Amino acid sequence: MSRTTLSRYLIEAQRDNHINADLRFLIEVVARACKAISISIGKGALSGVLGEAGSDNVQGEAQKKLDVISNEILLEANEWGGHLAAMASEEMDHPHPIPHRYPKGEYLLMFDPLDGSSNIDINVSVGTIFSVLRCPEGMEPTEQAFLQPGTQQLAAGYALYGPNTLLVLTIGQGVHCFTLDREVGSFVLTQENLRIPEDTKEFAINMSNQRFWEAPVQRYVGELLQGKEGVRGKDFNMRWVASMVADVHRILTRGGLFMYPLDSKTAEKGGKLRLLYEANPMSLIVEQAGGAATTGRQRILDLQPTQLHQRVPVVLGSKNEVERVTAYHLES
Ligand code: AHG
Ligand code: MN
Ligand code: MN
Ligand code: MN
Q: What percentage of the chain has pLDDT greater than the value 90?
């Protein structure tokens, strides 16, 4: 049986009028950049890419060399094709305009070039997350143009650099998973229409923040920890990779609940995870796979962003658990 590559999937999607040629090209270019990032990560200490870059980003985080390298790879790959109006990234203070020497397109690309960078130096899975919006007509692609609710995303995806390199993509037609064939150099469709089970016995949260959580999260996690003997009547397992891409991918594969809730440590900033580079693309993917994503109080995709680097609390994954956590918030 012939294999469906990412290129073929996208060409067929264009033929079915789900995307146009520019959006197809955009996704191909992002996938190509992810291949380059995957190769860089794969070399590790052999090519001197591990460790600190010696700089801080706008988030106030110390940048790793690979945060900077991955950001550069994505910028360079996407600058010249004529498909973009501008790009924005976790690692850049302001949107990156397309240089004057290149034609400009209608799309806005946002990315978290390297997600889970605390895992880089210990050789644990990391990823790249991306999201695509259309630049509003007649609007300059300044920061304002990026401030659109997640429902406006035309495509979103992530690459997971784990034991295999995967690309998980949605163009609003379900969620599909492509595995990088390293010999051939192409992404091959390996799972179609991923679905997140509505129920689960697994949750993901950084338990070390427990004393900082709000009451509804204390209540919810407390009930999970009671196991069989408690109100839930079953035992729950816990996982926390600390790379959102890896934690979300597990949920897409076998269900689960992921939470980075509001806590008194991050409340001032609005939460830990970034709305435009992390929460929105992951929420679109999760919803497209039959799951749900809220802040604990509201659907994430409905939020009207007010800042490029805005942060939000995130509760996502198996629908019935997300609904329970959200109900606990709304009751309190
Ligand atoms: P990034 O590496 O892009 O800055 O993102 C890290 C994020 C996310 O991937 C993960 O879920 C979370 O931070 C982990 O945070 P803790 O270290 O607080 O657990
Ligand atoms: Mn970071
Ligand atoms: Mn991240
Ligand atoms: Mn990052």
A: 99
Q: From 38, 25, 107, select the one nearest 70 (Cα to Cα).
A: 38
Does 196 map to a domain?
A: no
Distance between Cα 311 and ligand 4 center (Å): 13
φ and ψ at residue 240, rounded to 5 degrees: -150, 100
Tell me if 208 is assigned to a ligand binding site: no
Size of the chain in residues = 332
* Statement to judge: residues 206 and 130 lie in one domain: no
Domain co-membership, 170 together with 242: no
- Ligand 3 ion: nearby residues, β-carbon < 5 Å: 112, 115
Question: In this structure, what CATH number is given to the domain that contains residue 120?
Answer: 3.30.540.10
- Which residues are within 8 A (CB) of 55 and not within 5 positions of it... i.e. 6 or more apart? 62, 63, 68
Question: With 0-12 CB in 10 A as exposed, 13-18 as middle and 19+ as buried, what is 53?
Answer: middle
Burial call 173-195: b when 16+ CB within 10 Å, e when fewer? eebbbbbbeeeeebbbbbeeebe
- Put simply, whether the predicted model's pTM sits higher than 0.95 gets the answer yes
Can you tell me the ipTM of this complex? 0.98
Residue 308 sits in which domain range?
202-331
Question: Do 73 and 120 fall within a single domain?
Answer: yes
* Same structural domain, 136 and 262: no
**Number of structural domains, the chain?**
2
Query: CATH no. for residue 221?
Result: 3.40.190.80
Whether 178 and 152 have beta carbons less than 8 Å apart is answered as no
How many angstroms is it from 160 CA to the middle of ligand 2? Answer: 16
**Relative orientation angle of helices 244-254 and 280-288, to the nearest 10 degrees:** 10
> Residue 91 annotated as binding?
no
pLDDT of residue 236: 98
Distance 1 CA to ligand 3 centre (A): 37
